[in-house]
Amino acid sequence: MITSTVDELGVAEVVMDNPPVNALPVAGWFRLASALGELGADPAVRVVVLRAEGRGFNAGVDIKELQAATDFSALIGVNRGCAAAFAAVYECPVPVIAAVQGFCLGGGIGLVGNADIIVASDDATFGLPEVDRGALGAATHLSRLVPQHRMRAMMYTSATATAAELHAYGSVLRVVPRAELRDAAFAVAGEIAAKDPTVIRAAKESLNGIDPWDVRRSYRFEQGFTFELNLSGVADKVREEFGK
């Protein structure tokens, strides 16, 4: 589901592969967080490329796992798992490059919004369909990808944005054909890996230190409303209506 390797240049590659749509279960989010933490702690690692196999980058949480739960344990688990994975991307001591193809939805936005650099295929789309699932969250991260009013419109309508649109905003560095995505991400990674690793790690820490966003606190605030919607029964009602 989550695999990681490191090449001779110090470029680490973390790959999500959970068919059919790379929606991760609770264990998957925690495994992703763990993999990123282990790589960041390895002094041989200079940069991380986060990518996925399959039709899309990430479709968020495994809704079926939530629906199969008889209590709120899965909801608590997945919310903690997502928070851990998003934080692991942001707090990784080295730069994280997200290579995005196809759909990037829900939790995928949390990963990409916290990445340092984004490279996308020309078929990539980004969105938060949370309101259609009776949930909220990751607006914190979408706000790092698109302007404020575009983010609000996307949240309220569940609309998606294209890689070309995000490139125009400056949040996506490069847009390439899907067949060239991995090579494009590794080309950027190679440039970073060629720099002094101590300086790059210091740069990552310094940039996080001057970031106006407290992404942990902001996302945790959003999660509180998801809990409210589930406790009140509204979330179940919305998901049932959406599934008809």
UniProtKB/TrEMBL annotation:
GO molecular function: lyase activity
Gene3D superfamilies: 2-enoyl-CoA Hydratase, Chain A, domain 1
GO biological process: fatty acid beta-oxidation
Protein keywords: Lipid metabolism, Lyase
CDD domains, per the entry: crotonase-like (cd06558)
InterPro entries per the UniProt record, alphabetical: ClpP/crotonase-like_dom_sf (IPR029045), Enoyl-CoA_hydra/iso (IPR001753)
Family as reported in the entry's similarity comment: Belongs to the enoyl-CoA hydratase/isomerase family.
Xref: PANTHER family: (7AS)-7A-METHYL-1,5-DIOXO-2,3,5,6,7,7A-HEXAHYDRO-1H-INDENE-CARBOXYL-COA HYDROLASE, ENOYL-COA HYDRATASE-RELATED
Protein name from the UniProt record: Enoyl-CoA hydratase
The organism of origin for this protein: Virgisporangium aurantiacum
Gene name, Swiss-Prot/TrEMBL: paaG_4
